[in-house]
Amino acid sequence: MKLIGKILCVLAADTAAQAAVFVNPPEYAAPKWETKSPYQRDIYFDFAVRPVTIPTNGIQGASYTGTLDPILKLSDTVSGGSPLWHSSLAGFSRTGFLGLDNRSGNFGLNATVTLHVANTEVLGPEKHVWLEYEWYASPGTNVVFFSVAGPDGKEWPLLGGDPYQYIGDEFFRGDLEFGASPNPEWETITIHFYAEPGGAAFLDKLHIATECVPEPSALALVVLGVASLICTRLRAKK
Q: Which spans in the chain are helix H?
């Protein structure tokens, strides 16, 4: 099983798949990203339906188009999302939101939604997660932000991105890349919301891609070996 997982991880980038389109694809926009579409995991939420875990089919409302999604989505879970889902919100023409509407509240509200994203068993050299999302936070201290962690609970470093791309109608697009080494068995993506009294903070869309950075191929190792042999012989002739 571990060998199969390793093969799948390395070949993920070469398997054809029809995926939801990133506005800013990670292979062009992410500072450390190495592979091209199709991605290992490619999970898209438009929050048209309440995101809850369905034991035999991943997370309800998620579009799964990654190369490893058919196998791994069965282990995906979501927690904390049900009370925060809104099919519509007064004053917004968009529909389907995840977050906090505290515009009529008297106290500040904090909430988190955690997505458990499964991975292969093999611990490769490195793992990257790319998040693209559309968000709204009313002026003030209202915020939406993300953290990513592995099985050890340690938060991954943020490698780059831009969370403040204004796209009109008071909404922003965010792009963030997180990374960890070595590649963990799974990761959790936590969305943090805070809405002050009279404020709101929520997501309208969320798109997740992951890559398991492949180890050097056998061909590359052979090339290096041949180059080393040539250098050795040249030195011997001198």
A: 2-11, 26-29, 69-72, 218-237
Residue with tokens 């889902």: 85
The string of pLDDT tens digits covering residues 1-33 is 343 444 344 344 333 445 689 999 999 999 999
**Rounded to whole angstroms, how far apart are CA atoms 52 and 186?**
19
Strand runs (DSSP E) across 56-185, as ranges? 58-59, 62-64, 77-79, 85-88, 95-102, 109-118, 126-137, 143-149, 158-168, 171-180
Instruction: State how far the Cα of 74 lies from the Cα of 27, in Å rounded to an integer.
Output: 27
* Tokens matching residue 211: 């890559």
Contact (Cβ atoms closer than 8 angstroms) between residue 98 and residue 113? yes
Tokens standing for residue 143: 């915020």
Q: What does the alpha-carbon distance between residue 28 and residue 100 come to, in Å, rounded to a whole number?
A: 32
pLDDT digits (tens, 9 = 90+) for 63-105: 999 999 999 999 999 999 778 999 999 999 999 999 999 999 9
